[in-house]
Amino acid sequence: MIAPTSAPANAYARHFDDGNNNDMHFDESYKNGYRRQRDLADRSSTLPVSVLSAVAVENMGETTLQDHRLASHTSSTYTRLKDTALSFIDAQKHNPNLNNGDRLDFEALRSLATQGFTHSFGPTYSVSQTPKLQGSFDFERFKAHLESMLPHLETWDIDVRGVVVDEVGRSAVVRAMYRMFVKGKEEGVENDVVWWLEMEEHGDEWKVRKSTEMVDFGASKRIAELMMAGKGGARKDSAAEKEE
Fold this sequence. Notes:
This protein is α+β, with helices and mostly antiparallel strands. It is built from 7 helices and 5 strands; from the N terminus they run H-H-H-H-E-H-H-E-E-E-E-H.
């Protein structure tokens, strides 16, 4: 092992001692580790390599412990944000066992949203060409949007493909594949959706305050075509019966 030179150690000392350390965001234990390295460098010419190695390992152990404590703290927030995001998606799964016949657990979805919850759609240009998806939705309008699709769907399932959590921004991005089956059609349409969920803490819980749904407009168009084909088929059959 090569002993650290005195020049960098002294540079660290100057930075810590000249009042600029606030920019570094180092805690005291971390700075103390550098000070010990500085002192060690000053004595490196007289210390055997075995001693230098032992002190280096000791310093590494202190830093690792500090990092571990920090990681344990942030891990709790990370986990809760991730769990809330996944629960928000999970509440949208097809559930044929609900007593109210909705097949989608709106009460669970509502419990994960703040009182001032808002929802919007993207991407921007595609939404600009689709009036019914424009503007900001409160929870009731968001619920009504989902309810409008249910009568036309036989079933659907959701497969989460990935989650990215931003602890500082208190948000999570979830990519989910919605495989949807229109009533009377065997074709399943894979709707690749990306959710950006912004959250806030309420007591011991995290809730979604704002959701942005990036829609796969190609898949949405195909689903709409299948729905219209079903309606058209029903009108044609009815007309044929009258003619008979």
